[in-house]
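[Discussion] Sanity-checking designs against the backbone

I'm trying to build intuition for which residues belong where. Below is a structure token string of 84 positions. I'd appreciate it if someone posts a full sequence so I can compare it with mine line by line.
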């Protein structure tokens, strides 16, 4: 007897005839979407990501920002070269 057949036979013999309905103990909350279209969603995500970038550079002088950008550029170029 295959495993599926055996488990079906056991379930048929011992499982209750009526299915039990289980209610969750928590209430799910509906998500209020600020925007209704996918384009609005992406614009919102893009705006939040720009704010995060601004926070990285906030409080740094021009030389520190330039150094960080050069390091990021080197990392990007290294990854591109490794993929080729």
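Best answer:
Here's mine. Compare freely.
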């Amino acid at each position: 007897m295959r495993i599926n057949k055996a488990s079906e036979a056991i379930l048929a013999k011992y499982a209750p005839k009526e299915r039990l309905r289980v209610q969750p103990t928590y209430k799910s909350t509906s998500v209020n979407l600020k925007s209704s279209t996918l384009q609005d969603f992406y614009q919102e995500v893009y705006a939040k990501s720009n704010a995060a970038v601004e926070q990285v550079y906030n409080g740094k002088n021009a030389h520190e920002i330039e150094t960080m950008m050069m390091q990021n550029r080197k990392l990007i170029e290294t990854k591109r070269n490794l993929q080729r």
